[in-house]
Amino acid sequence: MRFETRAIHEGQKPDPVTGSVITPVYQTSTFEQDAIGVHRGYEYSRTGNPTRAALEEAVASLEGGEYGLAFASGQAATTAVLSLLKTGDHVVAGDDLYGGTWRLFERVFKKWGLETSYADVDDANAFEKAIRPNTKLIWVESPTNPLLKIVDIENLSTVASKNQLLLVVDNTFASPYFQRPLELGADIVVHSTTKYLGGHSDIIGGALVTSRKRVHEVLKYYQNAAGSVPGPWDSWLVLRGVKTLAIRMREHEKNATFLAEFLEVHPKVSKVYYPGLPSSEYHLLARKQMSGFSGMISIELAGGLPGVERFVSRLEVFTLAESLGGVESLVCHPARMTHSSIGERERRRRGISDNLVRLSVGIENKEDLREDLERALGEV
Ligand code: P1T
User: Fold this and answer.
1) What percent of the chain is predicted at pLDDT more than 70?
2) DSSP letters for 238-258
3) Range of the domain at 181
4) In the structure, which protein residues have their CB atom closer than 6 angstroms to any atom of ligand 1?
5) Residues 204 and 273 in one domain
6) Is 310 a catalytic residue?
7) Which residue from 126, 127, 247, 260 has the highest number of Cβ atoms inside 10 Å of its Cβ?
8) Looking at the structure, do residues 255 and 221 belong to the same domain, yes or no?
9) In a shared domain, residues 14 and 71
10) Active-site option among 42, 98, 177, 273
């Protein structure tokens, strides 16, 4: 079956007990056992819950993977991946990534003896050069947060397999509708389901998908042992979001393309980062490994920080907030919001300037969005 059909039906057969067409919210912490150690597939909701299981199956199917696991947040999913490693291991991560992921590597796992170095995602050889004898894993986002760089996943998978490393791709910005990293050779896909998969900015969640049985077993063991699972109600909300993923992503992309073209020629905008623009240095690679360019745009404004402050304060349809991927448009200032945990010097080195503004383009009417940006840019 094709993507749109699987999004609605995979893992979501009518409830076998009542015939309920929609997977019920199994709001229970525990399950009756018929005799000691004899149960009907579920025993305790940290270990497994039917609503969460439906979500896990659906997300795995959309990513083209064998196994899915849902977590309480994207960060919890990331932590689960890092639980595959041990003290003294080394990770090579792409140098443009969510500030919270950087914070996890640097402020949490470093003190447990996990080393991370950062490779320039624009340099095809940088990852290979960064590999050490103790390297176990390569971690990238594509498109990256916040500069929307595209990383050649197929290329990296060759580097990873040659060196017997796991390649982990955070696919949050693309969603499986536009990109399926496992098909390009990645070993594990990470999602913040808070974003496009949930799609309505009403939950925090995460997911992992892999086709590697042994890796899945270790991750599943960790999921139960550590317990960072989403509740049934949040799982259900993501599951409902997933059903409309395809049509939402098409609209996000349509609106983003329209706005990127408008912004590209606006005199108050000095740079537009959007891989869908033919002028983007990432356009050809994006065309090769993605089937669309998603709904995230970053821009640099001509007016410096005061200009940025005036811009965000004048917007009426775009809401100033962290996060992305919901139906409503959001605007964010990475330097002081999502990426503030990365120190100023390191931020500058990575190209995250104080002029940088990130837009999560929603699915409102595109003319209302353009007028909103035009009005606010007039104040920069
Ligand atoms: O917020 P959480 O569900 O824990 O997901 C973390 C996360 C993981 N990966 C990527 C690529 C992300 O962008 C995020 C969260 N990002 C934001 C909140 C943001 O505004 O960028």
Assistant:
1) 100
2) HHHHHHTHHHHHHHHHHHHHH
3) 3-243
4) 73-75, 98, 100-101, 141, 145, 170, 172-173, 192, 194, 204, 206, 322-324, 332, 338
5) no
6) no
7) 127
8) no
9) yes
10) 98
E strand segments, the chain: 67-71, 90-94, 115-119, 135-141, 166-170, 188-192, 206-210, 269-273, 296-301, 319-320, 330-332, 356-360
Q: What is the CATH number of the domain that holds 359?
A: 3.90.1150.10
The residue annotated as part of the active site, out of 89, 96, 170, 354, is 170
pTM strictly above 0.90:
yes
Whole-number pLDDT of residue 140: 98
Indicate the SS3 state at residue 87: coil
Q: Residues 346, 235: contact at Cβ < 8 Å?
A: no
41 and 190 together in one domain: yes
DSSP-derived letter for residue 229 is P
Buried/exposed 161-185: b ≥16 CB within 10 Å, e otherwise: eeeebbbbbbbbbbbbbbbbbbebb
CA pair distance 161, 348, nearest whole angstrom: 33
Q: Give 176's pLDDT tier (boundaries 50, 70, 90).
A: very high
Give the pLDDT confidence score for residue 303 in this predicted structure.
Answer: 82
Q: How far is the CA of 346 from the centre of ligand 1 (A)?
A: 19
Give the bridge partners for 94, in sequence order: 119
User: For residues 240 and 233, is the Cβ–Cβ distance under 8 A?
Assistant: no
Q: Model confidence over 194-237: pLDDT tens digits?
A: 999 999 999 999 999 999 999 999 999 999 999 999 999 999 99
255 and 214 housed in the same domain: no
Mean pLDDT of the chain: 97
pLDDT tens digit string along 10-58? 999 999 889 999 999 999 999 999 999 999 999 999 999 999 999 999 9
Known catalytic membership, residue 170: yes
37 and 183 fall within a common domain: yes
Domain boundary among 226, 243, 260: 243
Number of compact structural domains in the chain: 2
CATH number of the domain that residue 67 is part of: 3.40.640.10
Verify that 54 and 187 share a domain, yes or no: yes
234 is catalytic: no
> Does the annotation mark 195 as catalytic?
yes
Last residue of a domain, one of 227, 243, 259: 243
